[in-house]
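Record pair follows.
FIRST:
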Amino acid sequence: MSPSPRRMPLIDAFKAIASQLIVLHHLSSYGPLSESARELAPQLLDWMYDYARVAVQVFLVIGGFLAAKGLAPQGESVVQQPLALIWKRYRRLVLPYLAALGVGITCAALVRLWLWDGWVPSAPTLPQLAAHALLLHSVLDQEALSAGVWYVAIDFQLFALMVLTLWLSGKAGALAGQVRRLTPVLVGVLAVASLFHFNRNEVWDEWAIYFFGSYAMGALAYWAADDDRSPLWLGVLAAIVIGALVIDFRLRIAVALAVALALGVGRRTGALEAWLDVRPLAYLGKISYSVFLFHFPVVMVMNAVIPHLVPRNPTASAIGLVLAWGVSVAAGAFFFRLVESRVR
């Protein structure tokens, strides 16, 4: 969810739409508001629950695309100090994440006074807090303190894996005299391993390699869209991913492929800087990480407060969900201005 120094409206729009879908997914998944509103619009709520979460693939692909742009813009690794880059990424992700987590823990404590339900996080323990700060909560089987925090850990793992892969490819390529060829090849090999093996087994879903196929699609689409490369390379990428889908169809991988191809074609044609250049989408894309981090405390509070203020019926609950959606976006914008923009 990191920003790029050069504005690309298509990426902003994808991030904006994906972040809103994730908010809608969580609104449909937790609390009495969604349970009551489902009587009014069961198909819509079920769709939000079942499919809106696939939008996380958009962020995975964009992450790989921007990583390639920043770390190997010509397909040749420019990584010289991998640990410094990984540490910088950790700070960029974790400082706003910890601030949002602190607010979420406070909100959960207040909500438990009115609403006791399994989806409201319990009071944290010291091991939980330490695991979350180190982005190891999933690996160490610690209960999540907020919805979606698994993604922050995976994003960090993916970036670290990409940095180390590019650094090694640069070292090995320098010895072999084939730096530009070796970098995409190594990333491609890891992507194939992920798509054809690791991503098909959920036992790996706490580790970067499970998601690396989607992340690498973004990077490979960036490199394949170079002006001096044949456009057929995007076709090769599509063919490999389609082969993985023929063996085991996964909607998340199909969505990742569609996003990767859109970014690749957009870069090759110049449309990356022109498509969907709409100011509200650009703004929502800019604040997408803050919305992602900060919306769950809002979801908890709204689910605790609204049913105590108005009669519990499907119409009132549906209005409450829409209100919670709007407040989530507004709170995310405030959090961006107060915290994330200063971290940047």
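SECOND:
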Amino acid sequence: MATTKAQAPGVAPRRWGALFFIGLAQLMIILDGTVVNIALPSIQRDLAISDGDRQWIITAYTLAFGGLLLLGGRIADYTGRKRAFLIALVGFTAASALGGAATGFEMLLVARALQGGFGALLGPSALSLLTVMFTGPKERAKAFGIWGGIAAAGGTFGLLAGGALTDYLDWRWCLYVNIPIALVAVIGGYAILTESRREGRARFDVPGVLLVTGGLVAIVYATGRAESDGWDSATVVGLLAAGAVLLAAFALVESRVAEPLLPPRVIADRTRGAAYLAVGLAGGAMFAAFLFMTYYLQVAKGYSPIRTGVAFLPMTLAVLVSAGGLATRLLPRAAPRALIVPGMLLGAAGMLWMLTLDAGTSYAAGVLVAQLLFGLGAGLIMPVAIDYATHGVDQGDSGVASAGVNTAQQIGSSIGIALLNTIATGATADYLASHGGGPGTARQAVVEGFGTASAWAAGILFAGAVVVAVLMNTPRPRQQAGTEHGDKAGTGEPLLARP
């Protein structure tokens, strides 16, 4: 059986200091998923990007990230998690510099895809380092509470940073800002992190990479094309069918190859599978909410980029309260679905509140309420789902399990943004066609489009809550008496009461 060269569970030296630098890398990944959202109207004007293509500035990043994450997890497992972490940081920074210097839509698209590719190595190497360093239930709960808080609140912080950078400098600094963050993370990570890797000869599932990436690209591209071509067009239907066939072939290949990209044993567990689903749905809804609220505030309400960023602060506070004050305290004591399901229902309520908005709705009665509901929900979902998505796996699979979490989030974001942006754009066009032109009508058309898409997002989150409630049957954790960390002897796996 594969083993991992690592410190004994729960006693990795300087692990809390290491968490700071790993957290910086995670913050940078999350920032780049949202920091350009606030700047997107400015980027769209500067580079002459159409409404139908604007989502690709976000999707190019999340799709490359999600499509290559599983490969990144395997590379981290076999070549060394610390080494992969440092190399990915350097590559991510170089891609950010390229994007900041972009002179056209195509160059920016390539840079964003490269960011996603290096992020696909950075994300799982960072999370797998965390997984092998923190194994005792109490410390693990604290560490994953911090990690989940970064994952949930980092997106909102990115919106604030994006607003400030766009207003006071230029949208290009939304990409250049990665350089100093990465520099600190590289220096600190090199000095403090301990190397760990899976023993044995590295074998990579190249057919699996090609199949899963091709399938996901086909589905996301088809969803984006539906806005202009229609859902019943031959191109869209053909791409969706091709994507489904490629993903089905991927599942078949993974069950037969010696070293699968995503071992079936990792996702066969009902709790882990439900956790991946929760992360994916929450990620899609979260990024869609950022996009909708950004355009609502800047287009319908006339907010500046910095004012828009400040307007998102209540969501950040709600996430911090929920993730740090509630989820972290309840995680060692409560069954995971007792936190995730209410979180998804709160998120659905926040999306439904978007239906009450119009161009004249005040901030306090409109966006603020939606943000607080969605932020509280996201804070309950992310720390718990991320913890249980990597819970109980063999340390040799920690990289690919960690990649699975990030894959779910990024693919959920890619498909969610593409689908919901298509629905919003179509509803806006329908409203304009039936109500004529004029500045007031145009603003209300934007609101109508985002309201329609938000209703779809709420329905998806509600359906996801039902599925998670049925699938995630893991009961409340209990610690084993007589052990320092409540771990199984020699395994570092917290005991769970099983049915």
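COMMENT: The chain has two domains: 15-195+259-471, 206-258.
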